Amino acid sequence: MPPLTTSAITSQEVHTQGRGLTYGALAYVLWGLFPAYWPLLVPAQPIEVLAHRIVWSFVTLAIVVMILRRWRPFLELSGKGWLIVTAAAVLITVNWGTYIYAVNSHHVVEAALGYFITPLVSVALGMIFLKERVRLPQTVAIAVVIVAVIVLTVDYGRLPIISLILACSFGVYGLLKKKVPLDAITSLTAESVVIVPFAVVYLLVLGSANTFTTEGTGHTLLILSTGIVTAIPLVLFGAGAQRIPLITMGMLQYLAPVLQFAWGVFVVHEPMPTSRWIGFALVWLALAIFTFDALKNRRKQTLAPVSN
């Protein structure tokens, strides 16, 4: 019979991973439900919504950092670190703004496509900029996505610009985040510090056109909630990432675009002609290849003998 301590440790690990799975799933479900949230802020225009999101995210995250006493990393961040943070702040601003515009202009499905292809864009960026070795199945998956984009370009009569901006901005954003020695909450707070002055200036210039105080108490409260809505899934994501393997978080990330896609097709009834279904089917095929390869590679690493 194994020692009781071994059983206890195993039970604790199972409990910890179960909580991590719950936190991670909740984070991606909340992100997946964003298409239901942003239209609630109309008649505020996308740029105004973006500016408010930056301001109130900064306020919320600053409070969290103060409560957790994580201000020391800001003081220790080098000039090069702040330069990378600035570039990341620009990219996440572009990403947020594009997504808000997409949702409020009835392009939810196109936005979902962007987040479906983001993992493969990240692989391509790693290959190009980090000289990471790309396995054959990953190369095949990227090639299939390229074909899918061509099919969707023919379908839309144009490049799926929203999808490409979302995927590329978030992919490069993730690439930069690898270079910043800050955790998720502290890093986003630093990015907010960089970008919030521009958001404040924009809202001041907007003046009486700012809907913050002109559309009633409910609208004001919704605007204020943008900070909490941004922070909660981020905190849940961080809690989940600390408790479960990265490969598991990678599988969970598909929850968000699946929910976004479902919202666009079945709730707001965006058009999905046959050619568009074919394009998305190719994307899902690429993701299936990518996911199977990731799981297979993970299993190989787990079973590999450890040398002393």
From TrEMBL:
<feature type="transmembrane region" description="Helical">
    <location>
        <begin position="20"/>
        <end position="38"/>
    </location>
</feature>
<keyword id="KW-1133">Transmembrane helix</keyword>
<comment type="similarity">
    <text>Belongs to the EamA transporter family.</text>
</comment>
<keyword id="KW-0812">Transmembrane</keyword>
<feature type="transmembrane region" description="Helical">
    <location>
        <begin position="275"/>
        <end position="295"/>
    </location>
</feature>
<feature type="transmembrane region" description="Helical">
    <location>
        <begin position="188"/>
        <end position="209"/>
    </location>
</feature>
<dbReference type="InterPro" id="IPR000620">
    <property type="entry name" value="EamA_dom"/>
</dbReference>
<feature type="transmembrane region" description="Helical">
    <location>
        <begin position="50"/>
        <end position="69"/>
    </location>
</feature>
<feature type="transmembrane region" description="Helical">
    <location>
        <begin position="108"/>
        <end position="129"/>
    </location>
</feature>
<protein>
    <submittedName>
        <fullName>Chloramphenicol-sensitive protein RarD</fullName>
    </submittedName>
</protein>
<dbReference type="GO" id="GO:0005886">
    <property type="term" value="C:plasma membrane"/>
</dbReference>
<dbReference type="InterPro" id="IPR004626">
    <property type="entry name" value="RarD"/>
</dbReference>
<dbReference type="InterPro" id="IPR037185">
    <property type="entry name" value="EmrE-like"/>
</dbReference>
<keyword id="KW-0472">Membrane</keyword>
<feature type="transmembrane region" description="Helical">
    <location>
        <begin position="81"/>
        <end position="102"/>
    </location>
</feature>
<feature type="domain" description="EamA">
    <location>
        <begin position="19"/>
        <end position="153"/>
    </location>
</feature>
<keyword id="KW-1003">Cell membrane</keyword>
<keyword id="KW-0813">Transport</keyword>
<dbReference type="Pfam" id="PF00892">
    <property type="entry name" value="EamA"/>
</dbReference>
<feature type="transmembrane region" description="Helical">
    <location>
        <begin position="221"/>
        <end position="239"/>
    </location>
</feature>
<feature type="transmembrane region" description="Helical">
    <location>
        <begin position="159"/>
        <end position="176"/>
    </location>
</feature>
<feature type="transmembrane region" description="Helical">
    <location>
        <begin position="136"/>
        <end position="153"/>
    </location>
</feature>
<feature type="transmembrane region" description="Helical">
    <location>
        <begin position="251"/>
        <end position="269"/>
    </location>
</feature>
